[in-house]
Design brief:
This protein is of the alpha+beta class. It has a single domain, classed as Glutaredoxin (3-Layer(aba) Sandwich), CATH 3.40.30. The protein contains six helices and nine strands, in the order ββαβααβαβαββββα. The strands form two sheets. A seven-stranded mixed β-sheet has the order 2-1-5-4-3-8-9. A two-stranded antiparallel sheet has the order 6-7. The protein starts with 11 loop residues before the first strand and ends with a helix.
């Protein structure tokens, strides 16, 4: 499993991008993880699935609400990752009114989840291989904080915890 001090994996994820104004899509666009994180402080929040109860009611909304505070604490970007495709992530972002506060990034084939060792096997529950629930603070591509939840928990990966860590970093 990835740990503090490790570099983010060299994988490509996808992000749905809409043309502002006329509503036409230009996504999904590739996101080269190492390139996108270079020279930035990034708060990564990973969830098991878009539109799922805890993810939609607590996890993502906390990061949307704390976006300005996280940026004031030195975070350049907030990324929300899920093992969903870019279209689903884009629709979930619109549903959650994230605007430009959070980048909604799809890990459609679980490449990032597998490369970091942060997978969650929900086979038998109809969800297949997913990402574990966690938050991560990354500086210039290196992990400086990692908060991985236990099975079925939502205790350490919330926005308030990562905000406190960003302020202390």
């Amino acid at each position: 499993m990835i740990k503090v001090g490790d570099t983010l994996p060299a994988v490509t994820l996808t992000e749905y991008v809409a043309v502002e104004g006329n509503g036409c899509s230009i996504g999904p666009s590739p996101v080269q993880v190492q390139e996108a994180a270079a020279g930035k402080t990034v708060a990564i929040v990973a969830v098991p699935g878009a539109f799922t109860p805890t993810c939609s009611q607590k996890h993502l909304p906390g990061y949307v609400e704390q976006a300005d505070a996280l940026k004031a604490a030195g975070v350049d970007e907030i990324w929300c990752l899920s093992v969903n495709d870019a279209f689903v992530m884009g629709a979930w972002g619109r549903d959650q009114n994230v605007g430009s506060k959070v980048r909604m990034i799809g890990d459609g084939d679980a490449a990032f989840a597998k490369a970091t060792g942060l997978t969650l096997d929900l086979n038998g529950k109809g969800l297949g291989l997913r990402s574990n629930r966690y938050s991560m603070l990354v500086k210039d591509g290196k992990v400086v904080q990692l908060n991985v939840e236990g099975p079925g928990k939502f205790e350490v990966s919330d926005a308030a915890t990562l905000l406190a860590q960003a302020k202390a970093a």
